[in-house]
Design brief:
With 212 residues, this protein is mainly alpha-helical. The chain folds into two domains: 56 residues, no CATH class; 139 residues, no CATH class. Helix content is 70%, strand content 0%. The protein contains 13 helices and no strands. Helix 3 runs antiparallel to helix 12, helix 5 packs antiparallel against helix 11 and helix 6 packs antiparallel against helix 8.
Length: 212
């Protein structure tokens, strides 16, 4: 029986990977939920972020993009642990082009975000110390929306519990003013959904690359 269930999972996964269709992803997620391979909270997070397959798997209707940016961010804050920091970092990365312009690009925002990302992926003492230092240095950047997004995101990686929620909102709202609401939500979705559903971690993959 277990072998049959595993074979069904693999068949549904292969069908989804080949088609990329939301309905095929939904069937795969339903089977994963039934098999205990993924928790309902993980699928609910993916659904909140706008993943079509996750929403269909849970029978959710309506437009996930309908709530305003603050309401969407507040709801996202219901997921604790590394979720607020990961979402804030994904939003803040969208503002980096602002600092890359001109003859002398500012390297501080990119370095600060990378330190925060390393802390989220590997929350050891050394990474926590570097992230705290980066968060302190990022104070100087928070003079406009782009700088505030970076500052709030790095601060969020050092925060705990309820402290992270206003920082998440600040990062998402500030980044939205720079890059646009739709772009921010798409960036957060693309960064968190594969991680939430246990497929891969885009953040780990980026940190393993040659450049930030």
């Amino acid at each position: 029986m277990e072998a049959m269930a595993d074979a069904r999972l693999r068949t549904l996964e292969r069908r989804w990977r080949e088609s990329g269709a939301g309905c095929d992803h939904a069937r795969f997620l339903v089977e994963r939920l039934r098999a205990g391979e993924v928790e309902p909270e993980q699928v609910l997070l993916a659904a909140h972020l706008g993943d079509a397959g996750a929403r269909e798997a849970l029978g959710l209707e309506g437009d996930p993009a309908a709530p305003g940016q603050r309401a969407w961010t507040t709801a996202l804050g219901a997921w604790r642990g590394p979720v607020p920091a990961r979402a804030a970092l994904a939003a803040a990365r969208l503002v980096l082009p602002v600092f890359d312009r001109g003859l002398n690009p500012d390297p501080r925002p990119r370095r600060a975000l990378r330190a925060g990302e390393a802390q989220v992926v590997c929350p050891c003492a050394a990474h926590a110390q570097r992230a705290a230092a980066a968060a302190e240095q990022a104070d100087a950047l928070a003079s406009d929306d782009a700088g505030t997004a970076v500052w709030a995101a790095v601060q969020a990686t050092c925060a705990t519990g309820d402290e992270a929620l206003p920082l998440l909102e600040s990062a998402v709202v500030s980044a939205g003013r720079v890059a646009g609401v739709v772009a921010v939500r798409a960036a957060v979705r693309d960064a968190l959904v594969p991680w939430a559903l246990g497929y891969e971690d885009p953040l780990t993959r980026r940190l393993g690359g040659a450049s930030a």
